[in-house]
Write the structure tokens for this entry.
Amino acid sequence: MLLDSQIRELLQKESTIKILSTIDENNQIHTVTKDSLQIYNDNLLYLEYLESSTTNRNMTFSMWFKNSVTVLIVAENKISYQIKVTPLKCIISGPIFQNFYTETLKKHNNTDLAAVWLLEPDKVINETLSIRQKEESIKRPYFKHLDRLAL
Amino acid sequence: MTSLLLQDKSTNKYSPTDELNTLIHKYPQFPYFVMLKTDIQRRGIYYTQAALEKADPTIHQMAGTHIFGTRDGILTHRPEAFMLRDGTSVLTTPTPLEQNPYIVDLRNDKLTLVDGQNELEEIEYWTKPDFYNQKTKSGIPMNLIASARPQRIYIMPNRYCFFWSNKQNCLFCDIVNNLQKQKKELHMPTRLDPDDVEETVKEALKQNGRFTAICLTSGSDYNGNNAFDRETDYYIEILKAIGKNFKTKKFPSQLIATAFNSEQLGRLYEQTGILSYTPDIEVLNERLFNWLCPGKAHWVGYKEWKKRLKDAVPIFGRGYVNTCIVAGIELAQPYGFKDEDEALKNVLTEAEDLISSGVNVVFTVWAPRPGSVIGNQKNASLEYYIRLALGLHNLRKKYGLRLDHDDYRRCGNHPDSDLARIL
Ligand code: SF4
């Protein structure tokens, strides 16, 4: 299970910033916040409210042509994780869709639901600066300004 | 919450057949899911007994009410269609095993698409809409008034086509033969009462999140003071009845009908909520149109049909007028093209003439049906359909033409318009 309890907890917090990055057919990156990003069983899920959005188009493109999609979550205390994901399923009808549709209408008056995207996590990287600094100083000791080592 | 049935990842567990693999590598810009759907529609589908037992008529949408028949001539008791993981719909025509169709079987308790030894994808049957359980006040089961695509209410107000009366029916069409069966086996009404339609739509709209559009289609009716006046008037009546269910005058809707003249179209647009218009030309070649669609050729004519398509653009807007071709019939013998390259060149040249004028062109894969005149012939190769879909997609790109009303979600029966998801 790639998504451990800390990530699950962070995703549940309203204060956590959830970002989704996709790329289009010309390799242009498109980055947006997606508050609806959540855990769904062992996968991630987000709700796409706009049929014509660039993200929706790019997600389809990624699913069709196996392009990468990245989720970034940033917590209040600066802890952040990058999660590489693969689009697994695009749900546009049926009972699961209708449940989320009803939930969406309740939560956000006048907001339609275009799709429920299910994302399978492939890799999780802890991007918290203090953790990455520690890692780098152990693995890449050359990457340092000398004045920081001076007496 | 309903649990999700999911395979781990198609790339690990499922593998395409050699033919598909070759084409996947030859056309890397063409999505695998759409290629698969196209080939399923080309070769047909066979549901094993285990797969049929998994189809629950209280949950899933079963076949039988569609305007056209199947390749094996059996009307009911099979799922109408299924969905692939990416949201692609696959409308299926059950096909006898001898014709080498794809197979839907139950593998590890999952509905699985199989070709030979290859397990290709996990699939899901379409779910039945709630209104299918209801009857109208007049006592007609509502599934005989309207059917459903995953996101569209599909109404066929008149299942009789008057071209059949004069033996001028399209040669690939089995509408009237299918109707006779539907009347006998399902007591399907030939012509719908507008009140029944209004009531059925009202019921359908109670299901939140289920439908995004309404589509109407019928057989042609040339009767009236001017040819097709009666067909026009009837659609107006039906659309007005449907419109009583909406707050707004216009609502997402599509009319698949005969090519009407400007006066008829003006009336339709002004008096009803209709938002898009699809007079199907069926084949993009005048000589073949005259052979394959004798009724349309006699009552309207090929050049006039194209003119009426273009004339409809100022009324409905660019992209909201389209026409469908039954791809593959242009290769039917003895008069069709003998060569796929030549056929494709002809179709795309004609399509460009329309698309550059704001008229979208989409195709369905020709499924030769036993109840039609040319039902014993074969459709085209998968590569032909891939090239056609790419050709139409590229033309839409070139002319900046959207296809919102007849896309993967509203319709789901056109491989080329599935590609419009990434336009
Ligand atoms: S117009 Fe042609 S395709 Fe349409 S219903 Fe009549 S015979 Fe069939």
Chain B has 14 helices and 14 strands.
